[in-house]
Amino acid sequence: QVQLVESGGGLVQPGGSLRLSCVASGDSIPIYTMGWYRQAPGKQRELVGTLTSAGTTEYGDSVKGRFTVSRDNAKKTVYLQMNNVKPEDTAVYYCCAIRSAFYTAWGQGTQVTVSS
Fold first, then answer.
1. I want to staple 39 with a disulfide (CB 3.0 to 4.6 A). Which of 11, 45, 89, 100 is the partner?
2. How many other CB atoms sit within 10 Å of the CB of residue 73?
């Protein structure tokens, strides 16, 4: 059983930066793939970025080169560093912990709004 709590969302200006954090609780956290998805109003949830226990990353095309997922297993925390944000990055961002294709834990989400 994994529980995830996101924080760090808020209002940021276009071109600015923001860092989201997600603290996990539960056992065996280091073996999980962890990362972030997002969902904008009227849109489907989409991949932002994930990071496996082996260090392999995957990013959505719209955020490549701008966002970075990292993790600190000792703190059971995954981060999303968001740089050069754009208005289209506005969404609810959800932390996830993926054990397999059959199990994914989700956080409650944190709102990120990019606006001047």
1. 45
2. 14
